[in-house]
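User: Can you recover a sequence for this backbone? Please restate the input before giving your answer.

Assistant: Of course. Working from this structure:
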């Protein structure tokens, strides 16, 4: 269910509050929710996810990405969460795609080589190659 992109980041489709205990048992230190509340009927709210994550002993961040896309504030917030987590992070959204895209941009902002970002995403089943020019610009690595 959790798709490991690198030793420090995994992504997933929507998780349930009970999955926080599993995430903790698998060594994650933080959960990042990239899904806005109310996107689909029946999805857990950010408050429910925060409560479950914290009860499991995990750091929690809510960085929603909605249909309008994502901006630098979200990229910077994701980069900050990855840096502050102190261990592996599990990010989730509806399918894992938004979480992967946001991680890719945050990793590039942190200087990770775009080729390594694209390869890690591809190994997890996600294609971020269309973001190459942006990844290059953010990473300073053409």
């Amino acid at each position: 269910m959790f798709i490991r992109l690198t030793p420090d980041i995994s992504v997933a489709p929507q998780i349930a509050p009970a999955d926080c205990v599993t995430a903790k048992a698998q060594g994650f230190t933080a959960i990042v929710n990239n899904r806005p509340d109310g996107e689909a009927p029946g999805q857990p709210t950010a408050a429910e996810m925060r409560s479950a994550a914290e009860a499991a002993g995990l750091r929690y961040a809510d960085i929603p990405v909605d249909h309008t896309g994502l901006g630098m504030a979200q990229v910077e917030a994701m980069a900050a969460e990855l840096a502050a987590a102190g261990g592996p992070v599990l990010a989730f959204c509806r399918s894992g795609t938004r979480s992967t895209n946001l991680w890719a941009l945050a990793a590039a902002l942190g200087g990770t080589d775009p080729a390594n970002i694209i390869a890690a995403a591809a190994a997890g089943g996600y294609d971020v190659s269309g973001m190459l020019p942006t990844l290059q610009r953010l990473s300073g690595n053409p």
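That completes the design. Helices lie at 19-25, 46-55, 72-84, 97-109, 114-123, 132-139.
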